[in-house]
Prior knowledge:
Blueprint: H1 3-7, H2 10-23, E1 27-31, H3 37-40, H4 50-57, H5 59-78, E2 86-89, E3 95-103, E4 106-116, H6 123-133, H7 155-196, H8 207-220, E5 226-229, H9 236-245, E6 254-258, H10 264-272, E7 273-274, E8 286-287, H11 289-292, E9 297-301, H12 308-320, E10 322-323, E11 332-333, E12 337-342, H13 346-351, H14 357-363, E13 366-369, H15 380-391, E14 400-401, H16 403-411, H17 417-432, E15 437-438, H18 445-451, H19 467-485, H20 490-497, H21 501-510
Parallel strand pairs: 5-12, 5-13, 6-9, 9-12, 14-15
Antiparallel strand pairs: 1-4, 2-3, 3-4, 7-8, 10-11
Bound molecules: adenosine-5'-triphosphate (ATP).
Amino acid sequence: xxxxxxxxxxxxxxxxxxxxxxxxxxxxxxxxxxxxxxxxxxxxxxxxxxxxxxxxxxxxxxxxxxxxxxxxxxxxxxxxxxxxxxxxxxxxxxxxxxxxxxxxxxxxxxxxxxxxxxxxxxxxxxxxxxxxxxxxxxxxxxxxxxxxxxxxxxxxxxxxxxxxxxxxxxxxxxxxxxxxxxxxxxxxxxxxxxxxxxxxxxxxxxxxxxxxxxxxxxxxxxxxxxxxxxxxxxxxxxxxxxxxxxxxxxxxxxxxxxxxxxxxxxxxxxxxxxxxxxxxxxxxxxxxxxxxxxxxxxxxxxxxxxxxxxxxxxxxxxxxxxxxxxxxxxxxxxxxxxxxxxxxxxxxxxxxxxxxxxxxxxxxxxxxxxxxxxxxxxxxxxxxxxxxxxxxxxxxxxxxxxxxxxxxxxxxxxxxxxxxxxxxxxxxxxxxxxxxxxxxxxxxxxxxxxxxxxxxxxxxxxxxxxxxxxxxxxxxxxxxxxxxxxxxxxxxxxxxxxxxxxxxxxxxxxxxxxxxxxxxxxxxxxx
Length: 527
Ligand SMILES: Nc1ncnc2c1ncn2[C@@H]1O[C@H](COP(=O)(O)OP(=O)(O)OP(=O)(O)O)[C@@H](O)[C@H]1O
């Protein structure tokens, strides 16, 4: 237990002060071994009682004072059931009053005051005291009339002091209990957070993302091949990295290759390496990325774009851990965990004969499906917050987005997913410069126009009030925006909205949206 900390508690500071002022005694603390740390450090507040002051200032006196305190400690230790204050007479026959500190039923030491008499000293008492001081006090110490300055605490005063001492002890144990409860709560929160956010760079709390995290937890410690499926910008590489960094291969290389980046020959040589003279320009042997990744993880992005010839080679590495460099004759052996990713439907490619079925089954052992951003809109606020922090530069003022900007971002369909959102926020921070709140006007026109065609103010959908009114308001808004978007082509709009043309015309009339519309005859039907 750290008494330094307790001394700084507001209540203890106040109590110490009150006790000092009212009774001229000092509140001190002995630990669970009966040691008074302040005294041992020589950090002694000189007590008004001159006898005690002299005693505490000499080595022998200090030893005797310490011994007296330890007797009280022994009493507390001997009777663990005793939770109240106790008296003991010190080596000078002054009183020590101590109250034990218990925290969660453990004895942790005691608070005490010492150096007072319980009744006025007689002349004889003073004589005896002076005699006791001879071996302790330095020669020629001035103890003339010292007995006049000895605090005397009789019955009523003593009971008040006892109450205060016990109150101080209760304050300390309450504080410690509170602290340990807080520590426990923090600990369990941290455990909770680390469970949930072991993949701390991946932001998401929506149901689909929690599903992804659960799966990642399971696969991180295994060595099995993983297939990550998801649209562009949904975080496939981020997830692959997180799986690698949370697994047993984390100290080994993580190598990335996008299979759609090169033509077939270049990709083969990049993946498997080549020998000298394998092709024009191959001046020396070159290691392939599979060799570089040996012991670690290889992230093969856009695996669906691999040619059939390379698919065979990949299957061999996956099944046997061996491959032949371009132009080589000797098989090389590697131990690589493969995480493949694609935005394509590999099952569909298999059906069309564009992807080997055996390879598909080999890499589709565990499939992590990353949801597009439009299907995890619940994550938008934390993602926005995350990217605003990530791209916020020192000295920049921007703290957030105006409500209209947030509403537009929330309504946009995000075809480029998180990458598009991240780029948009980075751009907004640059354009926002010194602004504290970034207004909707700064959003990319692509986003604004998609959500608010015609550039009017964005009216976010209602979330309260009567349902039929909200439905009607939404219906009116969709028809009005649709008419603008289709340039009043009612047949097209009816198709888009999934209602009949006559039904649309009725609704247009009902909502008063027909004013100023071109004649039906003038409407140009699309092919
Ligand atoms: N859940 C997420 N939390 C935070 N940042 C994310 C998240 N998902 C993706 N990102 C960020 O979005 C950007 C795109 O992610 P990443 O490159 O992993 O996507 P991808 O699906 O591999 O894209 P592509 O298919 O185009 O290669 C990166 O900057 C990444 O850090």
